[in-house]
Fold:
Amino acid sequence: MPVTARGGGTGLCGGCVPSPGGIVLLMDRLNRVLEVDKDNLMVTAEAGVRLCDLYPVIEKEGFFFPPHPGEETAMVGGVIATNAGGSRTVRYGTVRTFLRAVEVVLPQGDILQVGGKLVKNSTGFNLLHLFVGSEGLLGVFTKATLALLPKPRHTLTLIAPYPSIADAIRTVPEIIRRDLQPLAVEFMEQDSVELTERQLHRSWPVKGSQAYLLIIMDLPGDDDPRVEEIAAVCQAHGSGDLFVAETPDKQREVLEFRSQMYAALKPWCMEILDIVVPRSEIAGHVEAVHALEREYKAWLPTYGHAGDGNVHSHIMRVGFRDGKPDFEAKADWDALYPVLRNKLHEDARRRGGMISGEHGIGLAKKEYLREFVGPRQVALMQGIKRLLDPNNILNPGKMF
Ligand SMILES: Cc1cc2nc3c(=O)[nH]c(=O)nc-3n(C[C@H](O)[C@H](O)[C@H](O)COP(=O)(O)OP(=O)(O)OC[C@H]3O[C@@H](n4cnc5c(N)ncnc54)[C@H](O)[C@@H]3O)c2cc1C
Structure:
């Protein structure tokens, strides 16, 4: 009997869809935060705790958990199973960096306690990291211990407006090289911003530019020279005056706008891609996306995590004419869809990229796995799956 674990159901590649039927294991009632350990800076929570319920508990104690997928109804078990990242990855890494221990129920009924409240651990193969990103194929998580950081005293959100996306993206390596340590660096383009304003009745605070960098800084005090330096680097690469969001409310508004961009595009979206390329290749990959838009007259709105090379292009049922989305255009979108995703993935592969930076493989991306990692690695992964789940009951039909 197939068993599919379902966390918040926010995953973007069909990972928790019970495609072969069977049992869906809802995690909703495993919803307790068990302990905030102030001496070890760790939180232990059950797998069904939603991030939006976890953050306030740890923040109240003066702590901070950096991983932040844009949808806060994702659950602790789900973010481990997908190795979720989000905008703060550039500075702190993905969930993998923060997982210290996990309780896993194996398909044949054993319950494992893997890891501990440890900062380092070289005791045998690292099974903890094997379970991270296992997408519900190797075991069901019921409880996890995650490392925390002290809560930053201040954060500041900057928006740098640019005449072109290429200028915006080319700013990022210099920000990283100068060790300015942003918490997040996101890029987005005007057409997607306009659609989000229209669809969700939200307002973006900067008007009239083609592209934007959204930069979040965590600061030890009010006055930090890094802010001036980041502004100078942005302006040296063609940015106009930076918008500064200082109050927590204004900063939350800006971040929520970014998180909601997917919701605005969704009615027309056939697939959100999750390509990750070396940072030096982001600008080239985004240029390739725009060349495909022009060639196929199909809008491919693209935004992403400029700081870590993770680019989300959306394959839409929307045309592209005179450099703008054309919502009236008629085309055989179903026929165009595989052509565009093949071309986009091909470009990523040429640049040394991968098909998923944070969403995982699930159902949506499994046909590309072999092509990207090769048959030998797929065979090793399948061997691991067989070892842990000899009857192939956990989330069968996903990933491979
Ligand atoms: C608007 C929006 C923005 C997003 N932004 C980001 C982003 O910035 N970064 C990012 O990384 N992701 C992002 N995501 C994707 C999504 O939030 C993450 O993939 C998240 O980690 C999924 O968590 P979930 O609890 O919803 O898992 P689900 O969608 O329920 O499941 C995902 C996978 O995990 C498995 N699983 C779930 N719970 C368990 C468990 N207890 N034990 C074992 N396996 C389990 C499922 O079987 C499935 O394979 C976004 C999604 C949306 C809708």
